[in-house]
Specification:
12 strands; binds adenosine-5'-triphosphate; binds magnesium ion; ATP hydrolysis activity; transport; nucleotide-binding
C-alpha cells in the first residue's frame, strides 16, 4: 500500500479583503523529505504556512493530514495534529534557561499544578539528551538561552518541536538572520533530522544554495500560485534561480525579443 502524504493541500485559497494571497495551491509533503518552498517576496509562502499552522483558515480548499481532512481553528489544533512551526522569532525567552525554554508551558512536575514541584533534574536530563541527539552538546542546560548562538537557538526550537510530537517541521527562513557559520549549524540540524527518516521538513528560504544543499524536492510559488516543482536531481541552479524570481530570467526576455524580431 502506498503511504498517503503526511500533508496534502488541495486547492487552497486565502483572501485578505479584496486581495487574493493564495489562489488555488496544491502541495504534497511526504514523510522523511526536506521540501523547499521557494518564491519571491509576497509569493504567499508565509500565508500558506499560516494556514498549515492554524493561524488562518482558508476561504476555499482542504488540508489533509495523514490522509484525513482537518480544519484547524487555532495553532493548538495544528500542533496536536503533529505540525510544528519554527518561526524566525523562535518564541524563546533569552533570560530563561535552555531547559525552561525547552519545556515552556509543558513542565514536568510532582503534585498538582500550579503548586507542584518542578522535576528540574529530569527536565535537565531530557533537554541535554534531546540536544545531543540533534548534534549540540550543551554542557549546562541551566545556562540562559541568551548565551547560545543564533544557530543553536534555532536547533533548540527544532529539538523542542520534535520532542513534543511534530511529524512535520515547518522552518520559515531559519537561516536568513544568521551569519555563515551559524547558517551551517542550522543546515546540519536539518540534515540530522532528515536522517531520522520519520519527519518531514518544509524549508522556506531565499537562499538557492541552501535549498540545493539540503532539499529533496522543490515547490516554487509566485503571486499566490505554484509555478513549478521538481526534485533536487531534476533542477539545475539557474532553473532554481529563474523559478525563484517568479519564472522570468534575462534569457527568457532575450528569447521573447528574438521571436518578436523574427515576426517583422
Ligand atoms: N494579514 C494580511 N492582510 C493583508 N494582506 C496580507 C496579509 N498577510 C499577507 N498578505 C499579503 O499576501 C501576500 C503574500 O504574503 P506572504 O507573506 O505570504 O509572502 P511570502 O512569500 O512569505 O513573502 P516573503 O518572502 O517576503 O516572506 C503579500 O502581498 C502580503 O502583503
Ligand atoms: Mg514570508
Amino acid at each position: 500500500m502506498i503511504e498517503p502524504p503526511l500533508i496534502r493541500v488541495e486547492g487552497l485559497v486565502k483572501r485578505f479583503g479584496p486581495f487574493t494571497a493564495l489562489n488555488g495551491v496544491n502541495l504534497d509533503i511526504y514523510r522523511g523529505e526536506v521540501h523547499a518552498l521557494l518564491g519571491d517576496n509576497g509569493a504567499g509562502k508565509s500565508t500558506l504556512i499560516r494556514l498549515l499552522s492554524g493561524f488562518h483558515r482558508p476561504n476555499e480548499g482542504q488540508i489533509f493530514v495523514g490522509g484525513h481532512p482537518v480544519d484547524f481553528r487555532s495553532p493548538r489544533d495544528a500542533t496536536r495534529a503533529g505540525i510544528g512551526t519554527v518561526y524566525q522569532e523562535l518564541a524563546l525567552n533569552p533570560l530563561m534557561s535552555v531547559t525552561r525554554n525547552f519545556f515552556m508551558g509543558r513542565e514536568l512536575s510532582v503534585g498538582p499544578k500550579p503548586f507542584g514541584f518542578l522535576r528540574m533534574n529530569e527536565m535537565n536530563r531530557i533537554t541535554h539528551n534531546e540536544m545531543i541527539k540533534i548534534g549540540i552538546n550543551i554542557s549546562d542546560p541551566g545556562q540562559a538561552v541568551g548565551t547560545m548562538s543564533g544557530g543553536q537557538r534555532q536547533t533548540l526550537a527544532i529539538a523542542r518541536a520534535i520532542y513534543f510530537g511534530a511529524k512535520v517541521l515547518i522552518l520559515d527562513e531559519p537561516t536568513s538572520a544568521l551569519g555563515q557559520r551559524q547558517q551551517m549549524e542550522v543546515l546540519k540540524t536539518i540534515v540530522r533530522v532528515r536522517e531520522r527518516g520519520d519527519i518531514a521538513i518544509i524549508f522556506i528560504t531565499h537562499n538557492e544554495l541552501h535549498s540545493k544543499l539540503v532539499a529533496d524536492r522543490f515547490t516554487f510559488m509566485a503571486l499566490g500560485e505554484v509555478i513549478g516543482r521538481g526534485s533536487n536531481s531534476e533542477l539545475a541552479g539557474d532553473e532554481i534561480r529563474r523559478l525563484m524570481s517568479g519564472g522570468t530570467a534575462i534569457n527568457d526576455l532575450a528569447f521573447e525579443l528574438e521571436s518578436a524580431r523574427k515576426q517583422v
